[in-house]
């Protein structure tokens, strides 16, 4: 080997070691960045010259799994947070503030009053129990609509974040594609791009499709294009006021509806999906259950025509704003927010306790005890109401509780349904969190920096660098000797 060839080889080796050491230092400094992937120095030799190409540790299969579990976990977390707030309508079971507990208290107060129909103290206790129940249903309705409004706001925030991340992704992707075409090192830009994809998966389920030239296309988990060379606009019109009959706006991607009953390609996972399900499904179903309970109460305590003229049943102890009769099944949306105790049985509002016992709230044709206080021991009406509270009566079967139930049974079923939904969401969050932990760990093991490995590699490179430097020194000395002899 000539001295010139030996010199070039040693110099090339020295430069390669320097480049590799620079990459090791780069890995070491990026070890604390969760979006950083380990860089690998690929050494190629051409014509005696060593060249370093920077590669990036990656695993598409593991990344895909992590994105899926991230989206699934975000869905369940959004549902769980909303269900926890809805559970406030049940409250602490020991405080007996749930609708089921209030129905039980009403039944107990009614039984006591039926046993002593001439006792105004027991009548007052019954009116209070009825008022507490109506207030509980009113407050539960307000809570449900508050949860729906908050979920709607969360959807608006989610859409804004998705659009922001897509714009950042577009810039990062352009940097990767253009840099790849020029043969530049784009590994850091690819880290940034993957980090943005991971953030997107928190809000919406996505599918990553690699393309030539390190390009990437993004689709929703239902197949709607989210990014194809340019970001597709995600739009949503928030609703600022929610009532039981309010229908919230849907989310569109480039004009394609992806949430709501009219969506042909509905999203399957992500925070956005969890919020939409909470707003449009879970909360609405719970409201329907409470509305049916309110309808059952109004029906149970209704007054019937006693004159024989065949007049329709009318609201008695319980009524609602604008009532012209007994509400039909299924109940009108929001009836639980409108139900109240009839003023005609509350002395503080100009009514009389006797109207509970004797009837007549809707006029003389609806009087059950014509003798009034002359027959203060009259208990038939109160006993009939007591029997009505435990009797099986029809409820909307679409709610999934069966075609009939007692008032107490139906109220208990609504509370049980809510608690079961919360527990199911909690278990799903735990499960998805565990899966996400495993997926993240597997991806981390495949792509993250191992400081022990980097330290060992640095020591190896330092030895190689030292050997190359020593060889250069020897060649330099030999050249000097040769030149001195020739000279």
Characterize the structure shown.
- With about 475 residues, this protein is of the alpha+beta class.
- It has 2 domains: about 5-60 and about 450-485, no CATH class; about 65-435, no CATH class.
- The chain contains 11 helices and 13 strands.
- It has helices at about 5-30, 60-85, 100-115, 120-180, 185-205, 270-300, 335-340, 355-360, 380-390, 405-445, 450-485, and strands at about 40-45, 50-55, 205-210, 215-220, 225-230, 230, 235, 250-255, 255, 320, 340, 395, 405.
- The strands form 5 sheets. The protein has a 4-stranded antiparallel beta sheet with strand order 3-4-5-6.
- A hairpin with a 4-residue loop joins strand 4 and strand 5 (about 225-230).
- It is rod-shaped.
- The model has no long low-confidence stretch (mean pLDDT about 85).
Task: Give a brief rundown of this model.
With 487 residues, the chain is of the alpha+beta class.
Layout of helices and strands:
Elements: H1 3-30, E1 39-46, E2 49-56, H2 60-86, H3 99-115, H4 120-181, H5 187-203, E3 206-210, E4 216-220, E5 225-228, E6 230-231, E7 234-236, E8 251-253, E9 256-257, H6 271-300, E10 318-320, H7 335-338, E11 339-341, H8 354-358, H9 380-390, E12 393-394, E13 404-405, H10 407-447, H11 451-486
Antiparallel strand pairs: 1-2, 3-4, 4-5, 5-6, 7-8, 8-9, 10-11, 12-13
Helix pairs in contact: 1-11, 2-5, 2-6, 2-10, 3-4, 3-9, 3-10, 4-5, 4-6, 6-10
């Amino acid at each position: 080997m000539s001295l010139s060839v030996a010199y070039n080889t040693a110099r090339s080796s020295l430069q390669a070691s320097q480049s590799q050491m620079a990459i090791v230092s780069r890995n070491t400094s990026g070890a604390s960045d969760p979006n950083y992937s380990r860089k690998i120095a690929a050494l190629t030799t051409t014509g005696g010259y060593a060249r370093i190409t920077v590669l990036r540790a990656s695993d598409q299969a593991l990344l895909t799994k992590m994105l899926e579990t991230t989206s699934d976990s975000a869905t369940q977390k959004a549902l769980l947070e909303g269900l926890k707030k809805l559970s406030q309508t049940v409250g602490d079971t020991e405080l007996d503030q749930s609708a089921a507990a209030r129905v039980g208290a009403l039944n107990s107060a009614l039984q006591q009053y039926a046993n002593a129909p001439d006792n105004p103290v027991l009548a007052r206790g019954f009116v209070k129990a009825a008022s507490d129940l109506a207030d509980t249903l009113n407050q539960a309705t307000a809570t449900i609509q508050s949860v729906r409004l908050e979920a709607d706001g969360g959807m608006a925030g989610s859409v804004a974040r998705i659009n922001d991340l897509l714009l950042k992704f577009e810039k990062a992707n352009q940097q990767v594609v253009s840099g790849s075409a020029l043969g530049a090192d784009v590994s850091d830009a690819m880290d940034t791009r993957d980090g943005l994809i991971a953030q997107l998966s928190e809000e919406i389920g996505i599918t990553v499709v690699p393309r030539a030239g390190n390009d990437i296309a993004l689709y929703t988990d239902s197949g709607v294009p989210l990014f194809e060379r340019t970001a597709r606009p995600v739009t949503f019109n928030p609703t600022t006021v929610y009532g039981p009959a309010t229908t919230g706006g849907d989310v569109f991607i480039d004009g394609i509806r992806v949430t709501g009953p009219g969506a042909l390609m509905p999203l399957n996972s992500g925070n956005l999906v969890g919020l939409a399900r909470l707003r449009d499904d879970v909360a609405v179903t719970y409201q329907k259950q409470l509305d049916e309970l309110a309808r059952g109460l109004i029906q149970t305590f209704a007054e019937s025509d006693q004159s024989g003229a065949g007049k329709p049943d009318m609201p008695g102890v319980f009524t609602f704003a604008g009532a012209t009769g007994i509400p039909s099944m299924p109940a009108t949306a929001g009836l639980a927010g409108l139900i109240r105790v009839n003023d005609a049985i509350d002395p503080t509002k100009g009514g009389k306790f006797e109207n509970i016992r004797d009837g007549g709230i809707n006029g003389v044709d609806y009087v059950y005890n014509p003798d009034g206080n002359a027959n203060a021991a009259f208990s038939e009406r109160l006993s009939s109401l007591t029997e009505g509270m435990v009797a099986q009566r029809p409820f909307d079967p679409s709610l999934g509780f069966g075609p009939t139930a007692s008032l107490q049974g139906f109220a208990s079923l609504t509370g049980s349904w809510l608690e079961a939904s919360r527990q199911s969401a909690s278990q799903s969050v735990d499960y998805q969190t565990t899966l996400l932990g495993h997926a993240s760990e597997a991806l981390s093991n495949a792509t993250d920096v191992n400081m022990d490995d980097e330290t060992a590699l640095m020591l190896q490179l330092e030895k190689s660098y030292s050997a190359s430097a020593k060889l250069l020194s020897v060649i330099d000395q030999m050249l000097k000797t040769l030149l001195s002899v020739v000279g």
